[in-house]
């Protein structure tokens, strides 16, 4: 079996998502080429970002309602969403915080496809308190503007006793 780097999946899925978002006519082409089946398969990938990009593509296909781009009665789609829901419910709190976008995408897809609230929504797992927390700022010191960094160092030096300037005779 050939191993394909998840990076390539992410790039391809991101491109498909962009095309679907920009032009509704591309939805029909994507459907005719069989991409929904591939995206359903990739939505169960081990890589979180591959899953998210595949779910985004599926969501774009379901939102285009002028054509039936995604068969909502598809057993594989329902099984995928049920499986992702079970896995999300079984996640630890830390993993739940990391999979915020996936939780939202699975919930929206379920709601759009089946016109009922998802099990994630019923259990209160779509939006969690950790979603509102700001990420820690770990790189601020590295990217601090040079003038601000110089001024901060200068303020530290001011706390020391002033050094007399010897420019000329004192009066």
Number of helices: 9
Low-confidence stretches: none
Gyration radius, rounded? 26 Å
Decide which structural class fits the backbone. Answer: mainly alpha
Mean pLDDT: 81
Number of domains: 1
Let me know the largest β-sheet.
none
> Could you tell me the number of beta strands?
0
Give the end-to-end Cα distance, rounded to a whole number of Å.
89 Å
Report the β-strand fraction as a percent range. under 5%
Helicity level: 55-70%
Q: What is the chain-wise order of helices and strands?
A: HHHHHHHHH
Tell me, what's the shape? Answer: elongated
InterPro entries: ARM-like, ARM-type_fold, Hsp70_NEF-Inhibitors
Structure write-up:
This protein is an all-alpha fold. It has helices at residues 6-22, 25-32, 35-42, 48-63, 75-89, 93-98, 100-114, 119-122, 146-158. It has one domain (6-153). It is built from 9 helices and no strands.
SSE layout:
Layout: H1 6-22, H2 25-32, H3 35-42, H4 48-63, H5 75-89, H6 93-98, H7 100-114, H8 119-122, H9 146-158
What are the salient characteristics of this protein?
171 residues; 9 helices; single chain; elongated; mainly alpha; 60% helix
């Amino acid at each position: 079996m050939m191993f394909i780097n998840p990076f390539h999946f992410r790039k391809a899925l991101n491109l498909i998502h962009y095309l679907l978002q920009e032009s509704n006519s591309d939805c029909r082409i994507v459907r005719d080429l069989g991409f929904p089946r591939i995206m359903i398969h990739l939505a169960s990938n081990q890589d979180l970002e591959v899953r998210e990009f595949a779910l985004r593509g599926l969501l774009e296909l379901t939102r285009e309602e002028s054509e039936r781009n995604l068969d909502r009665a598809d057993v594989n789609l329902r099984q995928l969403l049920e499986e992702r829901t079970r896995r999300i419910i079984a996640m630890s709190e830390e993993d739940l915080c990391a999979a915020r976008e996936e939780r939202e995408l699975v919930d929206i897809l379920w709601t759009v496809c089946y016109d009922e609230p998802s099990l994630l929504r019923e259990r209160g797992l779509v939006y969690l308190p950790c979603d509102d927390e700001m990420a820690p700022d770990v790189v601020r010191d590295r990217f601090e503007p040079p003038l601000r960094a110089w001024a901060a160092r200068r303020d530290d030096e001011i706390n020391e006793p002033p050094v007399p300037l010897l420019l000329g005779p004192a009066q």
